[in-house]
Amino acid sequence: MPINFHSSNNKYTYTNRQATDSWTHRIQNIIDVKEKRVIDIGCGGGIYTKQLALMGAAEVIGVDFSNQMLQAAEENCAHISNTSFIQGDAYNIPFADETFDIVLSRAVIHHLDHIPNFLQEAYRILKRNGILILQDRTIEDCTIPGSPEHIRGYFFSCYPKLIRVESKRRPETNQILHLLRDTGFQTNPIQTFWEVRKIHPSIEDLLQDLSPRTGRSILHELSDNELSHLLQHIYSNLYERSPIIEQDRWTIWTAVKE
């Protein structure tokens, strides 16, 4: 069954790692965040809220619909003075028009039933010449074959049924472009990149990270027995590798409010 973001059992699902240099460099290549006012929509445990603050943003506000996630985010960013958190959802962002220089939404739009409504809200709260950064995985990103770097690919080779789940919820590249333009944004060229998710010292560390389904919502579609079989499948492919540098491929759409 899908992940329950409101469950206390999943409170720390998105706090157990740090944003890596691969992500930081990609964002820096898009825009200099220094002295900018930024909002992180669907901030989860505040991993990227924190990183944007450390990159020099004047203020970063994380918004999430889950109180459990926000509590974890506040703990995660307790010593970062230029961060704050507020409950809200992507369709009703609790801020005035033209408030932010940057709107970030990472790994969120595939959870949304009404992406155009969110884009309208993002457009509304952006200042003129502000930028929207959407980062998510398309089905093409997800189903790249499994390898020592692309661990996620093993999920789908082991359980092809997960491809059907992902196909229903994953955004289409050109569809998002069209929706952005329909909203009034000026779109930039699409980017794809490999983000280092985590460096695991050994196969045992990787399996320990996978077993609670932490930070990987697609694994909540598997039963405990299926997850156990998947872990055995991954072990058989990677048991001789050390360290394991886990990466995911992402698509980034950027658009400017002119």
Structure write-up:
The structure is a single chain. The chain is α/β, with parallel strands linked by helices. The chain has a domain of 172 residues: Rossmann fold (3-Layer(aba) Sandwich), CATH 3.40.50. It contains ten helices and eight strands. Strands 1, 2, 3, 4, 5, 6, 7 and 8 form an eight-stranded mixed β-sheet that branches. Helix 3 links the parallel strand 2 and strand 3. Helix 9 runs antiparallel to helix 10. The chain is globular and about 50 Å long. The N terminus is likely disordered.
Calculate Rg over CA atoms.
18 Å
Mean pLDDT across every amino acid position: 92
What is the beta-strand fraction?
15-25%
CATH superfamily of the domain at 8-141 and 169-197 and 248-256: Vaccinia Virus protein VP39
Biggest sheet statistics: 8 strands, mixed
Q: Let me know the number of strands.
A: 8
Describe the structure concisely for a colleague.
The protein is an alpha/beta fold and 258 residues long.
Summary keywords:
258 residues; alpha/beta; Rossmann fold; 8-stranded mixed sheet; globular; disordered N terminus
How do the helices and strands line up, and which of them pair or pack?
Elements: H1 21-30, E1 37-41, H2 47-54, E2 59-64, H3 67-76, E3 83-87, E4 100-106, H4 115-125, E5 126-136, H5 139-142, H6 152-158, H7 161-169, H8 173-183, E6 186-187, E7 191-200, H9 203-210, H10 224-238, E8 244-256
Parallel strand pairs: 1-2, 1-4, 2-3, 4-5
Antiparallel strand pairs: 5-8, 6-8, 7-8
Helix pairs in contact: 9-10
